[in-house]
Amino acid sequence: MRIVYSTDALVEIFTKQLSLNQYETGVLNTNKIAVNDEILQDYNKILNGNQYYQDWISGLHHQSLISKFGNSDIANNSLVGNGKDLDHYALASYITDQRITSLKVCGPWNQPYIDNVHVKKYLSSSHQQSNPYKTLVLDDSTKIGFNIFDKYLSLEANVYIYDQYINEKSCALIDYFAKKCKAGNYIKVFLFKEDENCFSVAKLQQIFKEFSNIKFYRIDASTAAKIHDRFINFGQRIQITFSKGLDQFGPKFSKGKVSSYSNNDSEINFYDVHLGNSYHEIKCFNGGKFTLSKRFI
After folding, report:
1. Strands 230-234, 158-162: pairing kind
2. pLDDT tens per residue, range 67-81
3. Regarding the domain delimited by 146-293, which CATH topology (the fold level of the hierarchy) does it fall under?
4. The dihedral formed by the CA atoms of 123, 129, 130 and 134, expressed in degrees to the nearest 10
């Protein structure tokens, strides 16, 4: 798990305005607290005289447990739009996918945290590790939609989608991406199977002919045999895997547009891949070759 604490949340903790349960105490002591120099300056400015804070921050430094990042992460990973203008808390929130502005608004440990960025659900202690850093569980009681990807579509320059077959429901997700991507971004979609139950590359190119920033590729048999995951890569930073196909959101259509969602039983896992050294090698029938960052545990 990766979390950034805004200063007010730490003030609540170290001035004992609230009592922490076992889970929250574990989060506080996690080795995935996200900071940069500006955030540390904020912490020290307000809490420097608090002994509990001093013991905490000294312990983290001593054990080299603070996960630090800097502006170079933005430049090196080709964020676009207003990504380079994010303040240090908004940047940390983007990188960690989890921002706690006040522990008072957080529910019990097994309930979702809701803030201005996203909804995150902790499943069990087995998921409290660096990868996957976030897991969403879909079932027939959930109505999770395509908008969970909006943040990445607005900031990441390049999107890669891999699913061995694309049907009408997964095509709806691609359509959403094509319409949401910022100008200058591009989307590459890789598929293999082409029959009466799914779209061919030629058919998809026809469907999406109005979009100049999206291209479709048919992978060769060796790649299809080697790579079974269904995934989306946002740049070289984030890989999102799907336990089922891209159609697991179960979009329902009205007058040709998605009107609601009826999720299938499945999981969506979010992985930090920009610090890894594992890669997918994708070969296509037209001779194209692509190297994409791969999830690691």
Report:
1. antiparallel
2. 666 554 544 454 555
3. Endonuclease; Chain A (3.30.870)
4. 0
- Tracing tokens 């999830």 back to the chain, one arrives at 295
Cβ neighbours, 10 Å, residue 185: 22
Structure tokens at 245: 């196909």
User: Which residue has tokens 């540390």?
Assistant: 40
Segments making up each domain of the chain, as ranges? 4-125, 146-293
Q: What is the pLDDT of residues 222-250, one digit of tens each?
A: 999 999 999 999 887 789 999 988 999 99
Alpha-carbon gap, residue 77 to 71, rounded angstroms: 10
**What distance in Å separates the CA atoms of residue 259 and residue 117, rounded to the nearest whole number?**
23
CA dist 54 → 7, 41, 89, 115, 128 (Å): 14, 13, 21, 28, 25
CB atoms < 10 A from the CB of 16, how many?
10
Which residues contact residue 97 at a Cβ distance below 8 angstroms, ignoring those fewer than 6 apart? 2, 117, 118, 120, 133, 134, 270
Ramachandran sector of residue 228 (left: φ over 0; alpha: ψ -120 to 50; beta: rest): alpha
End-to-end CA distance of the chain: 12
Tokens matching residue 29: 């002591």
> Residue 240 in contact with residue 271, Cβ under 8 Å?
yes
> pTM above the 0.85 mark?
no
CA distance 39 to 44: 9
Query: What distances in angstroms separate CA 10 from CA 47, 130, 174, 215, 242, one per listed residue?
Result: 8, 22, 41, 46, 35
